[in-house]
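User: For a benchmark we're assembling, each entry needs the component sequences followed by a predicted structure for the full assembly. Here are entry 17's components. Please fill in the structure.
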Amino acid sequence: MITISSKKRRSEFAEKLKEIGGESMSLCYQCGQCSATCPMSFAMDIPPRQIIHLVQLGLEQEIATSKTMWVCASCFECSARCPRGVDIAKIMEVLRLMTLRKSIDHVKLSDIPQDRLAELPQIALVSCLRKLTA
Amino acid sequence: MRISYYPGCTLKTKSKNLEDSALASMAALGVELVELQRWNCCGTVYSLADDDLVHHLAPLRNLIRAKEEGNSKVVTLCAFCYNTLQRANLLVRNDPEKRKTINSFMDEEEDYEGEVEVVHLLQVLRDDVGWEKLYEQIKLPLKGLKLAPYYGCTLLRPEEAAIDHVEQPTILLELLQTLGAEVVDFPAAAKCCGSYQIVSNPEFVVDCASNILSSALRCGAEVLVTSCPLCDFNLSQMQGELAHRDSEFREMPILYFTQLLALSLGLGPEACRFDLNYIDPRPLLKSKGLLNEKHVTAAKG
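Assistant: Structure for entry 17:
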């Protein structure tokens, strides 16, 4: 069970999140357009709509253990279609940065086989490293 | 006409077919794309966090180089580069406070205020060359070839960077119709291919590719047309896995719009560079009678 309190909503986590790009989260009225339009939601443990709700409630732990922001492909379909103007793609990035800025990489190049590295185009490697490593 | 050209990293290596076909086609249309004398990787993706300004320096430095060389406009072929350069440019143009901070980061460069205009080659074809002028130059109409125009993400989103209507784009459709092809509109034309998830989660990208390709196939497409090297790689490479999953899966070549442009302008194999595509489109093009003698001779040699 999750206990919601005003203390949580004013947490350091929520304040930091708002400060670096999450201010639009308060506009969300939970319609679920983002989850419906997301091409990666089939692979997410928590769909985008619920992530935004967790963000609104400042539930840091629940978000931190989710895979969702690491599966996001930054395609901007959610942000483009949101009827309330919530920049969901930007909030996903901010959530990634909350981890990456502790110098925790989500992807390690050393885990990828050499022949695979040689095969992948630069555009794939650079964008992956920019989005998923510190 | 001369336009300053920013290639980006992938066009010099894995996507030579995009660059070669674009430069040759534009030369045939009387447009010289002049590569910037000095450029660096744009970073491929635009940084979204409000306090992450340092990552905007890479794309902006390219625009500063363009300005230093006296250009008012810079064209890109890669959809990712287009998006990153365009958004960084709009940021410095529209946000005076961030512009000031960004400029103070750069010691050697003159202050930049977003003076250079960033465009994608599709916009040059539509707005500077024009469909009617282009139509007059077509030597080999792509008659009978069923093409699915695939936009992906970065040409259309977010709206401030879109080269066309976000939900109802027609620019690629108009180009392919001008080339004489039969254009197949399909519902997944702006769906994401899975992008950089190909590195860490390729199994998810298989599903993205499956949705896009099966949507195009069901609508009758024979070729998917793109402007993005990452879409090209993901949608081509995943087809092996899809064929493995489903014995009835039919391979579909992915082509850059510039390769079809080169073909219809009557240019040879050195311009079209079909030899570099992950899935060889030549058997299909030959069956449609669209490979001219130059292509057939080169293939024999």
